[in-house]
Design goal:
Layout: E1 7-12, E2 15-20, H1 36-41, E3 43-46, H2 51-62, E4 68-70, H3 76-85, H4 92-112, H5 116-122, E5 123-129, H6 139-149, E6 156-161, H7 181-204, H8 213-230, H9 235-246, E7 258-264, H10 266-270, H11 279-285, E8 288-291, H12 295-314, H13 327-354, H14 364-371, H15 386-396, E9 402-408, H16 412-428, E10 434-439, H17 444-467, H18 493-501
Parallel strand pairs: 3-4, 3-5, 5-6, 7-8, 7-9, 9-10
Antiparallel strand pairs: 1-2
Helix pairs in contact: 2-7, 2-8, 3-4, 4-6, 7-13, 8-9, 9-13, 12-13, 14-15, 15-16
Amino acid sequence: MSQCNSIKPQESNGSLSYLHQDKMQWRDTANKRYNKADKENTTLLIGGLTILQDKLMMASLQSLGEKYIALPNPDFDSFRKGKIYGNRGQCNPTYFTVGNLVKYLQDLRAETGMSSQEIVDKYAYVTAGGCGPCRFGMYITEYRKALKDAGFDGFRVFSFQHNEGIFQAEDGEGESLKFSPMFFITLIKAVIIGDIINLLTYKMRPYEVVKGATDEAVAECYEIIADAFKEHRNLTYAMYKCRKVLEKVDLDRLQPKAKVMIMGEFWAAMTEGEGNYNLHRFLESEGAECIPQPIINRLMLTIWEAEYIDNKVADLEVDESVKRFDFTHAKGKLNMALARVAIKFYFNLYAKAIGLNDYDVPDIEKLSKLSRVYYPLDAEGGEGHLEVAHLLESIKHKLAHLVISVKPFGCMPSSAVSDGIQPLITARYPSANFLSIETSGEGAANFYSRVQMALFKAKQAAKEEFDVLKIPEHIPARVNDYKFQPRHGATGTAARLVESIS
């Protein structure tokens, strides 16, 4: 519970005016009841992942007969509104995501002529929640506080806990939106497909002959997948149809480009917009190939964390007289195992159909063994041990010329914990090219400057790696086929391709 500001911002005719009010204690309120009648008359808003995945989630959930709309990608105006209506000291993703919701509702009110109360009655927002050593656990309260100050008092914000699996019960009063297993299964399929297409997009776009051809192909793929969801057609066949679309994109892959792995805090590393200063597009414009961290990594980490805690509890010494078979506990372990197997199965199935051949679902247990020398596995929060593990994996398996860890300003799990460990790793592995960088909404010039300095070294390494190779006189056509993805060899794509055909 925090104290509200005595100055309340209000927008009028596009400009801000301030009304002085008496200080008062902020008190969070629960959502009003959500029953069958509400379900029929309420449109649920979603968002917060990559642009493609937000749109695929909308299509997939609409296929269940629900009214879901994906919010637009957050922009700097979203950040500005988050600053206006949000508390001070929040992290960058909060300002962008909270402000984006406020901006959408204000635009909706202006465009449709609906009153604020009509919007409150007819719309609600669904987001992920959670806890841990960061400000993520306060997002829901922050949404409600900002919405109230923006004139949408009582707007419903529902959350599912990212660390409680897919079987999350509705409370006894029926005041929460119930998320069924089918909701999560459909959602995860959309996320997996989005991950696969995004991974291919970043492999192809830096080498496209015609600028914009990859984005056009991906837009066509979205229509194919969205139609398959809505019409309940086979998703594997839809992914195969996308393969035929992507094959038409002309590529020139024998260009030495620096490979840059982007990791860090979940939202800052994943978003594709002004929330991270358009980092992926900026790197591509500077002559780099990006390696994003797909959202499936976060799903697998969530399952691993649940199993890790479960195993620790099982190892506790218990009086033999009270030991008994716990059906609920056994069911939970089975659900986690099934979830892990199902995610891997569908990822591999869809990846094979579209032609992503060199990416495996991460083995979080293997990564934990790699990082546990440096990172205490009991330290939960954020991406856990993955940031340390990804840097070590990149060094040992020559995955990238540069590793960038991007996070909000003052992100405790990433800045205070992971970044505190990384200097030890870079000291032991001097060849590592690692950059830790924070986002705050402003400060793009400093951000880009630091990225360019680190990228200069990475580009030199990529060029040197390529120049020492002898280019064959005859270049097979498969070199420029995106489905030809050698798994081992040099770090850069061009050098690895040359090695594979020599």
